[in-house]
Amino acid sequence: QVQLEESGGDLVQPGGSLRLSCVVSGTIFSNYNMGWYRQAPGKQRELVALITSGGSVNYVDSVKVRFTISRDNTKNTVYLQMNSLEPEDTAVYYCNANKVVGTLGYSYWGQGTQVTVSS
Predict the structure, then answer these.
(1) How far apart (Å, rounded) are the C-alpha atoms in residues 44 and 25?
(2) pLDDT at position 109, please?
(3) Which partner from 12, 55, 86, 94 sits 20 to 30 angstroms from 119, CA to CA?
(4) pLDDT, tens only, 17-59
(5) Buried (b) or exposed (e) across 83-116, using 16+ Cβ within 10 A?
(6) DSSP 3-state assignment of 63?
(7) 4-7 — which CB contacts under 8 Å span 24+ positions?
């Protein structure tokens, strides 16, 4: 059974930093593309950052320069380093693991971790 467990969410002041972690178990982590998504109250879930199984990264424009996604395949873990946090970054952050094998797609989600940016 594939499981994703996020951690690291917290209440932080504007301008502060947080590092989110997502540990994946029950599968071969290195085969998956990993993404961080977020969902703010009343808004749709959006992709924040993506790192492919090969290590390529991509970010939504609003977090470029401020956020960094990385992965450690030896620890089955993906990270999201968030700097210069803004109130607009307040959301539940979700980790996603996905891959495509032939015509089959696989996608798994964690339960989410709350990030609140407020003074």
Answers:
(1) 27
(2) 98
(3) 94
(4) 999 999 999 999 999 999 999 999 999 999 999 999 999 999 9
(5) eebeeebbbbbbbbbebeeeeeeeebbbebbebe
(6) helix
(7) 4/95, 4/96, 4/97, 4/108, 4/109, 4/110, 4/111, 5/110, 5/111, 6/93, 6/94, 6/95, 6/110, 6/111, 6/112, 6/113, 7/113
